[in-house]
Write a structure and sequence with these properties.
By secondary structure, the chain is of the alpha+beta class. The chain has three helices and eight strands. The protein has an eight-stranded antiparallel sheet. A hairpin with a 3-residue loop joins strand 4 and strand 5. The longest helix has 28 residues. The radius of gyration is 17 Å and the shape is globular.
């Protein structure tokens, strides 16, 4: 179809060349999706932090940190080398904004990331939004290939699940009381 934009995932590289070989590298992964719902519907789900957490295919559980309601302790199950599964816990501090939600993640192995989930209406298609996730990842150089591969794969599935959830929600008939 002409004008149809396919969901995409991009990766960019940022490396500081101040040292001969940096221990920590920074990478950016951008995942996009075109969703057939109005902006207000998309924002409702983006700002529903538990829903966003559970849409991630790696997540097996989460809890709110007892002393900070904006921070979640999340448990993922990771596949390592196709045959070994490992559970990993990490924290994600959340910030709700006008355009969506931001997750500030601190995980094992020195991995940190900031994930911005934003939605905006598309000018060319009324009732359609583009959801963009920008993930800025920093981790030790020897973990970067595994982490970026995992983020790309899992966040693509997350975006697909978000799309399905939102579009199914939009198709539900409204009940009159």
């Amino acid at each position: 179809m002409p004008g149809l934009v396919q969901p995409q995932t991009y990766t960019s590289t940022t490396t500081s060349f101040m040292r001969p070989w940096p221990l920590y590298l920074k990478r950016t992964v951008i995942t996009t999706g075109i969703i057939n719902v109005p902006q207000d519907v998309a924002l409702l789900v983006l700002k529903d932090v538990p829903t966003m957490i559970t849409l991630n295919p790696l997540v097996t559980g989460y809890e709110v940190k007892p002393d900070d309601a904006s921070t979640y302790i999340i448990t993922d199950t990771l596949k390592i080398m196709s045959f070994y599964k490992a559970k990993m816990k990490y924290t994600a501090r959340t910030e709700l904004g006008d355009e969506g939600v931001t997750f500030h993640v601190k995980a094992g192995g020195g991995m940190m990331s900031t994930n911005y989930w934003k939605s905006h209406e598309r000018d060319e298609a009324s009732g359609t939004v583009e959801v963009v996730e920008e993930s800025y990842v920093e981790a030790p150089f020897f973990l970067i290939p595994f982490i970026i591969g995992t983020v790309k794969k899992s966040h693509r599935v997350l975006m697909d699940r978000l799309t399905a959830k939102l579009e199914a929600k939009q198709k539900q008939p409204t009940r009159k009381t």
